[in-house]
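User: Structure with nicotinamide-adenine-dinucleotide, tokens only please.
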Amino acid sequence: MTSQQLDPEVEADLDVVVVGGCGHVGLPLAVALASRGSRVGIFDIDAAAVARVSRGELPFREDGLQELLAEALEKETLVASTDPATISRGDVVVVVVGTPVDEHLNPDPQQVTRAIRGVVDHYRDGQLVVLRSTVYPGVTANVERLFAKHGVAVDLSFCPERIAEGRAMTELFTLPQIVSGRTPEVRARAARLFGTLTDDIVELETEEAELAKLFTNSWRYLKFAAANQFYVMANDHGLDFERIRQAVIHEYPRAADLPGAGFAAGPCLLKDTMQLAAFTDNSFVLGHSAMLINEGLPLYLVTRLEQRLDLAEATVGLLGMAFKGESDDIRSSLSYKLRRILEFRAAEVLCTDPYVTTDDRLLPLEEVTARADVLVIGAPHATYRDLRTLAPDTEVVDIWNLLGEGTMA
Ligand SMILES: NC(=O)c1ccc[n+]([C@@H]2O[C@H](COP(=O)([O-])OP(=O)(O)OC[C@H]3O[C@@H](n4cnc5c(N)ncnc54)[C@H](O)[C@@H]3O)[C@@H](O)[C@H]2O)c1
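Assistant:
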């Protein structure tokens, strides 16, 4: 049965339905739209997350989201459900399911298409369908063919999300929004949707917009790799990269975007660089080089430790397991890669994180600092700035310069 046959029974009582709306991108978007007056529905297959969101609890940390979620539930402008029939209730449907690469770093270009195909009967003629997941180039055209095959006449648009986790509730209202679609009417419809969040709308052709998102994340990943390679160069010569970087960027705008050293990790940057690599038949030499540098940093740090202490006899304390500071998200965190290496090469590794709740092997910070011979800061949570009150004399490997004592390792 097609959605057209279901149509007469369905009333569009929601302005927007977010598919994948309990995720790191979907939930902030759903809540942001509700805060600007839209009636929003969430459809998500994660029943536990739907239950939490419906109770007003966040499934993950995100600054400023809790208050607006509570407000939306109170005003009844947001509902969450595991029922795919929710899709039919929306005038607009935003699809923002996860698009991870597999264990061999291959993208799966069918993820978004599958998420739609499985419930295609719930889509209706006349809906605006916005793809917001970061996709392998060509996915939007693929979804176009899927709807055509099932005889569902939707307006299809690809509008990438470019927020950084932790800053969603600011950036959704301030970042420019790229919108795309096959016709000016579709682009205008998408612009109206995002115009409730931001005034700055940038139009692109569909395939341009798909690449724009991948270029955005790959560019950031390349910059981190450049910084990390400079870090290794300086460190190998007994020089502190951060001191050099501060001199380079001082009153020198052309180098102002040189990042500090650090673990470049998380669910997006490497993944999207690898999507671009696959798209170019693995000829994205810069992307693969960036991967080697960024993913190689934990191993480099362990080797440096081995050069100056008897690591096999040492207890290492690893502070911060999330993929970045102030986050509880451990997806593709390099702290876990570091832990795996240390479990093999050190006597013992003790891990801690104030925010991560999904790892029952974590210990309190006080215990880790008391027992460790050497400490490594894996994620630069602000709370570790006070580390010296707990560990005045222990060596700390701090490539982030969180303690202000330099970045040498
Ligand atoms: N995390 C970020 O900071 C960020 C930023 C920009 C873009 N993106 C992109 O946004 C997309 C989503 O990323 P995320 O971090 O929010 O992922 P996520 O895993 O946190 O969220 C995805 C959500 O989709 C749900 N889901 C999965 N399959 C579904 C289906 N078939 N039907 C309904 N719901 C389904 C999951 O249960 C989950 O709640 C990815 O393409 C990612 O690359 C992420």
